[in-house]
Design goal:
alpha/beta, GMP Synthetase, Chain A, domain 3, Rossmann fold, 2 domains, nine-stranded mixed β-sheet, three-stranded mixed β-sheet, 13 helices, 12 strands, about 35% helix, about 20% strand, binds adenosine-5'-triphosphate, binds magnesium ion
């Protein structure tokens, strides 16, 4: 027997809904019930079970949501036990599906003003970190000039094939589906990328690949603000961009320029945040932190430009080694501070994307681009 007192009215689904309607998603600032995040309420005497459908499996605030739900439902008289089940459904960037439906819910470019700041390293580790939370993730190596993704993901020499003679199957590694020009052309063969050819290649890498239903497509960009950036933003309305920088002042000036580029009216890509890479070196023997390139610049520039700061990643020789060996540090040593930093940045990024999509006005739809027959 469940033994509630004589005068306690029975617990009902309506009471549970009422209680959960007082719990807000901490980032979207709306209640779980009106956001459609509560499903499958089962009341069995004093035992209440329900499912919370998060807007990303990489939700950084799951514990807080759980505590808030338990407190609200636990306050209903007669409730004795609560089971919270979890599910996730990543909201779609509706601009993406309205223009080119390649099966991708969200496309995020990882860019920088300057070369060598760690874009590819960040793109690879964020993609794998997101996949490790349970999200379905793709990785597009858009650096046609110097594709590094095959090495960093441990997939050198992989040859994509086509099942249906139309779309090519992406290569899969560390739970991520990926494509790179490095898989498709002879790496020893130099290619001079001219405008239209470059444009065509970018479109093919996007549209001719059988991505399946991806929650996130992470795009590793070449450095700077050039042709690839333009081709990509013309081919696909990007959900947003992540800007990578090192802490030095020279790098900062380039960051301002690349943020400004994404924010140009004709490009119109929201900047989802700044990542400061190579921020401090933790001496492995003493644990002492040395600020080799300075520190904190990423945060300052993010504040100046009014965009989120996603976090910093320390210099760790294991990050480079992981890249060279094809086992990203988030897989090779998930407890290392750099790996933890990538995981936290991935969560913050995923949360930012969800908030953006939930709040995105529906009328901001793109016109279909008639040139995109390739993606039919
Ligand atoms: N946090 C880090 N700690 C140690 N090494 C790092 C870190 N981040 C990146 N590296 C190393 O720095 C080098 C440059 O990184 P990466 O290739 O990711 O930069 P990039 O911005 O993509 O360069 P490019 O502009 O040439 O595409 C690589 O050898 C990489 O392993
Ligand atoms: Mg790179």
């Amino acid at each position: 027997m469940l033994g509630f007192g004589k005068h306690t009215p029975p617990v009902t689904e309506a009471l549970v809904i009422q209680a959960l309607a007082t719990v807000n998603d901490p980032e979207i600032h709306r209640d779980l019930v009106s956001l459609g995040m509560v499903r499958d309420i089962v009341v069995d005497g004093g035992h209440v079970a329900f499912t919370v459908v998060l807007t990303t499996p990489a939700c950084p605030l799951r514990n807080q949501i759980e505590d808030d739900c338990r407190r609200a439902v636990g306050a209903i008289p007669g409730v004795e036990a609560i089971t919270v089940n979890w599910d996730a459904q990543v909201p779609r960037d509706n601009r993406l599906t309205s223009r080119v439906d390649i099966g991708v819910r969200n496309a995020v470019a990882v860019g920088s003003g300057k070369g060598g700041v760690g874009k590819s390293t960040v793109a690879v580790n964020l993609a794998v970190a997101l996949a490790r939370t349970g999200a379905s993730v793709g990785l597009l190596d858009a650096d046609v000039y110097g594709p590094n993704v095959p090495i960093m993901m441990g997939a050198v020499g992989a040859k994509p094939f086509s099942r249906d003679g139309k779309k090519i199957e992406p290569i899969e590694a560390h739970g991520v589906k990926m494509i790179s020009i490095g898989f498709l052309v002879d790496p020893k063969q130099p290619i001079v990328w001219r405008g239209p050819m470059l444009h065509g290649a970018i479109r093919q890498l996007l549209g001719d690949v059988n991505w399946g239903d991806l929650d996130y497509l992470v795009i590793d960009m070449p450095p700077g603000t050039g042709d690839v950036q333009l081709s990509l933003t013309q081919a696909l309305p990007l959900t947003g961009a992540v800007i990578v920088t090192t802490p030095q002042a020279v790098s900062m000036a380039d960051v301002v320029k690349s943020i400004a580029m994404f924010q140009l009216e004709q490009i119109d890509v929201p900047v989802l945040g700044v990542v400061e890479n190579m921020s401090g070196f933790v001496a492995p023997d003493t644990g002492k932190v040395y600020d080799i390139f300075g520190r904190g610049g990423g945060q300052v520039v993010a504040e100046q430009m009014g965009v989120p700061f996603l976090g910093d990643v320390p210099i760790d020789p294991a990050v480079r080694a992981g890249g060279d060996a094809g086992t990203p540090i988030v897989v090779a040593d998930p407890d290392a501070p750099a790996a933890q930093a990538f995981a936290a940045i991935a969560q913050k990024l995923a949360a930012g994307i969800s908030v953006l999509n939930v709040n995105r006005p529906r009328e901001r739809m793109f016109q279909a681009d008639p040139d995109l027959a390739i993606m039919g």
